[in-house]
Specification:
Largest sheet: 5 strands, antiparallel
Helix content: 25-40%
Structural class: alpha+beta
């Protein structure tokens, strides 16, 4: 019978396992270095989306002939140069409808929206899905015909 050479755990096997473990640790650390900027970019995207919504709403309110708040401040109905415009929440989206048709998304990822109007300023209170609240006041330019 042949006798097998069983010398036990060798230094070469130990070094090989250490190299494999080092590669996995590098991949693990690389994931977290990649994840940090992605989280920051998502936060920047949300604030950018809020600013774009604010600019669009301010443009709609620049030359208004008539404005009404409906449904306890959850819907804005206004008349401007483009005709009848409605701003409302649909699911997790604030949308714009022109002349009662269309579905133009203005802001996504919201839980609730409420508007208040005090003759010159429209204030938007927007609660995001993550629970944060954005508040912004908009100047309303009401011009009679």
């Amino acid at each position: 019978m042949k006798k097998m050479d069983e010398q036990g755990y060798t230094l070469l096997e130990n070094i090989f396992q250490l190299l494999i473990m080092t590669a996995f640790i590098h991949l693990f650390l690389l994931f977290f270095f990649w994840k940090g900027p992605i989280d920051q970019q998502y936060a920047d995207y949300s604030s950018t989306q809020w600013e774009l919504f604010s600019v669009e709403l301010q443009q709609l309110l620049a030359n208004v002939k008539e404005i009404q708040l409906l449904n306890a401040g959850k819907v804005i109905h206004l008349q401007n140069n483009h005709g009848s415009v409605t701003i409302e929440q649909s699911g997790t989206v604030i949308r714009k409808r022109v002349a009662g048709s269309g579905h133009i998304p203005l802001f996504t990822g919201i839980q609730a929206v409420t508007f208040t109007f005090d003759s010159t300023t429209l204030t938007a209170f927007v609660t995001m899905v993550d629970g944060s609240v954005n508040v912004r006041g908009f100047a309303v330019g009401i011009y009679p015909e």
